[in-house]
Design a protein that fits this description.
- With 325 residues, this protein is α/β, with parallel strands linked by helices.
- It folds into two domains: 68 residues, no CATH class; 241 residues, Aldolase class I (TIM Barrel).
- The chain has eleven helices and ten strands.
- The structure holds pyridoxal-5'-phosphate and iron/sulfur cluster.
- The site of iron/sulfur cluster (SF4) has 9 residues, from loops.
Length: 325
């Protein structure tokens, strides 16, 4: 099936997913309705990796809206990473030296409940002309050597739209690198089309693809094949994860995650501490626990399989390693 059709066939009603998983709605603690904001959305490809009849499945917990979302501790806000003041243009974020982040679309294939996007007004950033303005902005700023396509999820754009962006960026002499941050190769593996891998391979820019996997169960055969197609075309593959309570905050899971990623051709890059966005506090792992996990994990893994544990702090010039916080 074509990936667009697959995307349209995603679950948007909690009842439908629960019924496929043979779960009774009463077995789920404190489910809430999300009709008005950050709706429920899960691809069938991702859903197929959730174990049936297990209300605590780590993949299910990433997408299920529960009453934890209604808590709002004081240190959780709507703009936890301080992006508002950094917008040089409506779809361009430049916080770090040499790199600019282009919000290519506000949409995603899946709505991860812990995501900071749940509270961020991305819709207005991707209106017509915003992209054009952003590219114009990049062409005038000689300090930008790397452009990161992010979102939302940039692979929601089709290959033709991506090609147009690639072509514009290629024409800018000072831009050397193009990075794509996307969860689609994981949650919708059919998105990794031949045309996409060729685009990435054939552009004159140096490319990398950063995927997003939090738990080893997310890598099933179809996903591994999609990553293999990238690898076979010489793409550099990295992974970022978020450290999430009851999902991956244990040594066994984190060890296996790095190992499984590497066997799929992906190197662990960042392990993000949760961005403190309102509605996600029930996923938070404390800094002390995270530091313990990092220390232990280092004794289990080859050095190159060790992700860097980082937190994003507003107004800092880089993501900050946990040990320095
Ligand atoms: C995370 C991030 C980057 C990329 O940072 P790296 O440390 O190079 O991966 C760039 N821009 C913004 C706004 C970011 O949040
Ligand atoms: S931006 Fe990434 S983490 Fe956030 S909802 Fe989309 S896929 Fe999930």
């Amino acid at each position: 099936m074509n990936w667009r059709k697959e995307l349209v066939n995603s679950y948007t009603r909690i009842e439908d997913l629960l019924s496929v998983l043979e779960l009774d709605i009463n077995q789920i603690d404190q489910l809430i309705s999300t009709k008005t904001y950050f709706p429920f959305r899960v691809t069938q490809a991702y859903a197929s990796r959730i174990k049936p009849r297990d209300p605590n499945d780590p993949l299910l917990l990433q997408v299920l809206p529960t009453s934890g979302e209604l808590l709002s501790p004081q240190n959780f806000s709507d703009d936890p990473v301080g992006e508002e003041p950094f917008k040089k243009d409506s779809s361009l974020l430049q916080k770090y030296h040499g790199r600019a982040l282009l919000v290519a679309t506000g949409a995603c294939a899946i709505n991860c409940r812990y995501c900071f996007r749940r509270a961020f007004p991305y819709q207005h950033m991707v209106k017509a002309k915003a992209l054009e303005n952003a590219i114009e902005q990049i062409s005038r700023d000689l300090s930008i050597k790397e452009v990161i396509l992010s979102g939302g999820d940039p692979l929601i754009l089709d290959d033709q739209e991506l090609e147009t962006i690639f072509e514009s960026l290629q024409r800018i002499k000072h831009v050397e690198r193009l990075r794509i941050h996307s969860r689609l190769p994981i949650v919708l593996p059919s998105r990794v089309t031949k045309r996409f891998t060729r685009l990435m391979r054939d552009t004159s820019l140096n490319t990398s693809l950063v995927v997003h996997v939090n738990h080893p169960n997310e890598l099933d055969n179809l996903t591994i094949e999609s990553l293999r197609r990238c690898k076979d075309n010489g793409l550099i593959l990295l992974n970022q994860s978020v450290l999430l309570k009851n999902i991956n905050n244990d040594i066994k899971t984190l060890t296996e995650l790095s190992e499984v990623l590497f066997s799929a051709g992906v190197l662990p890059y960042y392990m993000h501490l949760l961005d403190r966005v309102k509605g996600a506090s029930h996923f938070e792992v404390s800094d002390t626990e995270a530091l313990n996990l990092e220390t232990q994990l280092r004794t289990r893994l080859s050095g190159y399989l060790m992700p860097t544990f980082v937190r994003e702090i507003a107004k800092k010039g880089s993501k900050i390693p946990l040990a320095q916080i």
